[in-house]
Sequence to fold (323 residues):
Amino acid sequence: MSPLFAFCQTSSPITPRMRVIIDNDFGGDPDGLFQLTHLLLSPSVEIRAIIGTHLNAHDGFDPSKTQADNAAKKARELLSIMKIDGKIPVIAGSNSGMQNDSTPVKSDAVDFIIKEALRTDTKLPLYVLCGAGLTEIASAALTKPEIAGKLTLIWIGGPEYNDLALPPPNASPIEYNLNIDIYAARAVFNRSQINLWQLPRNVYRQAILPYSELVLKIKPNGEIGKYLYNTLENLMARMQKYKLNLGETYILGDSPLVLLTALQSSFEPDPSSSDYVNKPCPTISSSGIYQLNPGGRKIRVYQHIDTGLMFSDFFAKLELFKN
Fold:
């Protein structure tokens, strides 16, 4: 239950209208911690579990063999700072990716996704929110294909579609989150029938936070504000040691996961202030490249996100939680 719930109970009749499972690489890019904080402060979502997932085996954020365990530990650290540790299950996923696109990994996280998707005692729709790789959800769908019609997967990941956007200068053809586990991405795109909402690289890069707002609107808001501020401040200092100048903005690319769930419209619920197109789901090659698949199931591919709504809500909730 959200820490903001008590406030909302006294000021407005906001209750959960969807279930979410949060799946992210919290030991990597700190944008996942911002997204997690925002969702924890959102009373319209019922957070069923938080899953810590692995990075690419060669990722500089965490080159260890226990990446998913470390991600879960980081999530618990944040819950402790918010004084809600023990209130929501935190589960470590697999510490490595899939060995091929047809053999699922086994983990407590996979089991939880399956169990939650197959529940019959609730009518709240289920969203699985993936801000990194797709190992756990792909494995769950391979293990129990029938869950595909019982959830919506929202994924931050994948490169640009050639007919919709251009890649940024010097961009890798294999997008960062897809490259965490190419086999898992192939399993979701090529083998499953999962209802998929995708935010490719050109879209999640729109979630840009200026350093000035980090200082003025996040840092002053209690212990959680200081914690989030320090995660980015420390990263920026670390990058400078490697002669990488991040400038005065940072992309909080996982935050749209909140925008498309907690901040859906009141009537005819949907992320009504963000734009998408329905496209036939492409297949993904063994090298991680889209291949046209005109007969593929239709997926939502977002083109524009309402960052004004997303960030203003986050800042307001941080201030309310501080009080």
About this structure: Confidence is low (pLDDT under 50) at residues 5-10. The chain has twelve helices and twelve strands. The first strand starts at residue 18 and ends at 24. The CA atoms of residues 236 and 246 lie 7 Å apart.
